[in-house]
Amino acid sequence: REALLIDAGGSAASVLDAAAPDPIRALRIVDEAVADAGDGRLALDDARVVALAQALSEPTVRDEAMRRCVGPTAAAAEQLWTALARETPDPEAAEPAALLAVSALLRGDGALANVALDRAEAAWPGHRLTAVLRTVVEAGMRPAEVRRLLRDTLAAPTGAPALRRAGGSARTPRRRRPSR
What we know:
By secondary structure, the protein is mainly alpha-helical. The chain has ten helices and no strands. Helix 2 (about 25-40) crosses helix 3 (about 45-55), helix 2 packs across helix 5 (about 75-85) and helix 6 (about 95-105) packs across helix 9 (about 145-155). The protein is globular.
């Protein structure tokens, strides 16, 4: 899978300024996988893991995926993040592991949140979302506080009208860390 990510231009070993995936198409890939998880038919072959890793590498898509951690898709999203945290190579595994931590925090499962954050930190030391979530865990925030923080953070105005219409948020795409 790592080789596939490198070939697709989505790996840490690729050029740092590789073109970002189309966020609306990428979000559709995530939503289809969440729906499959909810229907009990999630299959993660190499191509799908790579597509999901690339989709979640776009910060606007990853932020929108965080919205799937609440509401009717929460359980299905958590199943997807759990599977992806296991199946995705480093450093890309940091994104689904961080999303798994969000899901766990929203349910009040601090133990799982810590395990997920450990996975994210091992996959990508210095990953910004992971650092923020580690602070949330260390502060002992209750699920209602995490939910409020998430709502307020994702409700911030953004500059990507197309993704906002699709329900997302935008910020400057992150740069991947160099390969080890």
